[in-house]
Amino acid sequence: MLHLIRLFIYDLARCWAVLLLGLFSVIYFIENGAAIELLEKYQYLVLVCMSIVLIERLIHFMRYKRYIQLPYALKLYNRVNNEQKESKIYLDKFIKYDKKTQTIYFKNRLAIDKEAYLNAKHQIVHLLGYEDNKEIELEIKAFNKKEIAIRLYKLPIKFDWSIDYLKDKNLYLGHSKKGAYYLPFENMTSSICCGESGAGKSNFLNMLIYSLLHNLKYIEHLDFIDLKGVELSRYKLNNTTFTDKIEEVDTLLENLKNEMDKRFDEMKEKNHLTYNGKFRICLIDEIGSISTINDKKLKETKERIQNNLISLGQKGRAARVLVWVFSQKIDSSSISTNLLTNLQASYLLKSTSQFNINNAIGLQEEIEEITRTRVQDFNKGRMIYKDGLTSEKVLLQTPYLSESVQNSMIEYFREFINK
Ligand SMILES: Nc1ncnc2c1ncn2[C@@H]1O[C@H](COP(=O)(O)OP(=O)(O)OP(=O)(O)O)[C@@H](O)[C@H]1O
Ligand SMILES: [Mg+2]
Q1: CB 106 within 8 Å of CB 95
Q2: For residue 263, what are the CA distances in angstroms to 146, 197, 305, 339, 401?
Q3: Which pLDDT tens digits describe the chain residue by residue (419 residues)?
Q4: Which of 380, 383, 402 to probe ligand 1 with, by most ligand atoms within 8 A of CB?
Q5: Same domain for 293 and 170?
Q6: Which of 116, 279, 386, 398 is the most exposed place for a label (fewest CB within 10 A)?
Q7: Residues 72 and 59 in one domain
Q8: How are strands ordered across the β-sheet holding 240-243?
């Protein structure tokens, strides 16, 4: 509090000084240099102006006191060590709060330390009074040369699905800080989605399928693979196929690979860089259940599956043949490193394994920039999406699909597609 009063006095003194100097110059100009003698005549005007400034500054300080105190409370400063003199401290200063974007700006006259803000993230949340509000997220970005922008936004922990999220030629991935987040069809790549059991992978997978089914006119065929469960067998629609047998998976991937090669031949002939026909997309839930099959007779089959998946991941995008893989773990026991590095986009849901986190998204610091929650503490459906083309990272929340919602969506698509 004492610090705030001191800051207030400094600030007020500075504003008054500027005001008096300004008024003096104006009067001096109007009265042709006779300002000193006329001081009495203008005393009320001067007093009124000073009071207005006082009130304005007072309101500013009362309104933004939390932000003004923040750099002081968290010791966010820069120090210059001068050999002759004592060291000098430059405290970060609150600059402004942009109500529209909910962004707070801080500046340091010397240089600002972004790392210090990232490290103080939890304290900042606490100090601003959002400790118990799990929906408030903050994003810390460097701004201009010597500024930091802290953006506060709300991302719901749980919300319901709505059919209005479906959009033509776009894949709905969930909600980001700006609302519904879409991936245009032409920017789709092969991808990996990773998260521990119960994190919300299958929920997300079903949600992606809705966008695909909604856009089925741009898709030649959808293939669902799941050796473990029957969830994906519920979609008995034209243009979709479900497989839960390894031999069938083998044939399917062999076909997909041939289809990709055929499309490449066609592209070569027409001098096209990308195929301009319909997509073929293959979704594989729990890929680990393929690698963990321990049957000697199936060794060759497994190898062929792996190799075909790698080829599809590597080259499929231009031919619009994509594989979307879902897995609890992404270490080499579940998915070969070679395949993993060829899946361009990634989605990371709750995971306690540092290996998963590093290999799906990247460094801890990059994650800290976009969320205050640790990946191991993510709630259901919370994820970081890394774009396959731009590598941009976005924090997303997927809506909850209850069983009745899922049943009614399947029913809806049956009517819409199988008619
Ligand atoms: N976005 C979400 N919001 C709220 N609850 C969710 C969300 N996603 C999933 N859940 C809940 O979490 C449970 C587990 O989700 P899901 O089956 O998608 O997990 P999973 O990652 O596929 O797990 P596993 O690896 O075991 O298959 C679901 O029964 C659902 O009730
Ligand atoms: Mg699942």
Answers
A1: yes
A2: 52, 37, 20, 21, 36
A3: 788 888 889 889 999 999 989 988 888 787 776 656 666 777 888 889 999 999 999 999 999 999 998 998 888 888 777 766 677 888 899 999 999 999 999 999 989 999 999 999 889 999 998 988 889 998 899 999 999 999 999 999 999 999 999 999 999 999 999 899 999 999 999 999 999 999 999 999 999 999 999 999 999 999 999 988 888 999 888 889 999 999 999 999 999 999 999 999 999 999 999 999 999 999 999 999 888 888 888 889 999 999 999 999 999 999 999 999 999 999 988 899 999 999 999 999 999 999 999 999 988 778 888 898 999 999 999 999 999 999 999 999 999 999 999 999 999 998 888 76
A4: 380
A5: yes
A6: 116
A7: no
A8: 179-184, 170-176, 393-397, 382-386, 345-348, 191-194, 321-327, 279-285, 219-226, 240-243
Domain boundary among 92, 124, 154: 154
Q: CB within 6 Å of ligand 1 — which residues?
A: 158, 195, 197-203, 328, 380-381, 398-400
Nearest to 115 by CA among 387, 397, 378, 369: 369
Question: In degrees rounded to 5, what are phi and psi of residue 217?
Answer: -70, -15
Q: What total number of domains does the chain contain?
A: 3
* Cα 403 to averaged position of ligand 2 atoms, centre (Å): 14
51 with 70, same domain: the answer is no
Task: Return the percentage of the chain with pLDDT > 90, whole number.
Answer: 67
Do 91 and 27 share a structural domain? no
Question: pTM, whole model, 2 decimals?
Answer: 0.86
Contact partners, residue 169, CB within 8 Å, separation at least 6:
184, 185, 186, 215, 218
Tokens of 3: 């610090």
CATH number assigned to the domain comprising residue 267: 3.40.50.300
User: Which residues constitute the domain of residue 262?
Assistant: 163-417
257 to 34, 48, 298: CA distances (angstroms): 91, 81, 20
Q: At which of 39, 63, 87 does a domain end?
A: 63
